[in-house]
Write a structure and sequence with these properties.
With 299 residues, the chain is of the alpha/beta class. The protein has 11 helices and 7 strands. α2 packs across α3, α5 runs antiparallel to α9 and α6 runs antiparallel to α7. The chain has a 7-stranded mixed beta sheet, with helices on both faces.
Length: 299
Amino acid sequence: MDRDQKEKAWKAFWERQQTSPGGSVVSSGPDPITRAQFDAWADFCSRLKQGSRVLDLGTGGGKLPLILRQARPDLSIVGIDRADPLPPSPEGIELIGGVSMEELPFIDGHFDAAVSQFGFEYGNTAVISEEILRVVKAGGSIGLMVHLGDGPILAHNLKRQEQILWVKDEKAFFDEIIGMLRQENAIFREAIAFAQNLADEGAARFGKGSVAWELPEAVRRTLVFAPGGTFEKLVATLELIAEQAEAELGRIASLAEACATADNRERLLAGFERRGRKPIEIAPLRLAGEPAFAELIIL
């Protein structure tokens, strides 16, 4: 796809997100990471024959199928994900939830190509490789966009991890605040001041807008508006904020593990190489002035 075609397709992609009645599966503005992903996949699409059937593994909200269809409206795309349910399927795309990458419910040679964007490295790559080679026709294109351990995405998330642990463990914030409120005749203004002080400290240490500021600030606002509700509802809301922070830690740990898997290329691609499929191109994705945040491996 030449530069002018790519620019036209990119503009249409973003307009589609902003006018979709079902809401966007990407951010509300044209962020540079998504643009870099779009350009890489648009180039990959040029390898596919007219009307190709494409399988997207670990599709999530269906972001990649939408990119592929915008670049190549003739493609027929199926996206699968372990999560269930998935968003409604747009025209030309079928999204199927509750499906493991390790057990694909398709007959041999059903697809002309298979793709994955930050999905392949989260599963059992040896088993998934066999499944991809089974359901893709001999010689079909395979594109795997994977994380990089030394890239800015993991670095950004590790900073978030540090900040969440500072709030949760070093400051024991959630235990302290809930403990204060469980005391008999608890005074809300003391808890509010406690949350405010930690939010100020988090902003001074990590920056306003950081998660170290965001978490205590969310608690502070919850406490400010709490007097109109029940004590049980207040505690449940605070526990939910704490659970969301814990879930974020789990997500970051999973990302770090996936990066380590992707960085070990010999092991990552061993299943393909045993069957004679080796990379024919590895395209780095980067933002201006930054190291690559991902690579698109084409087999």
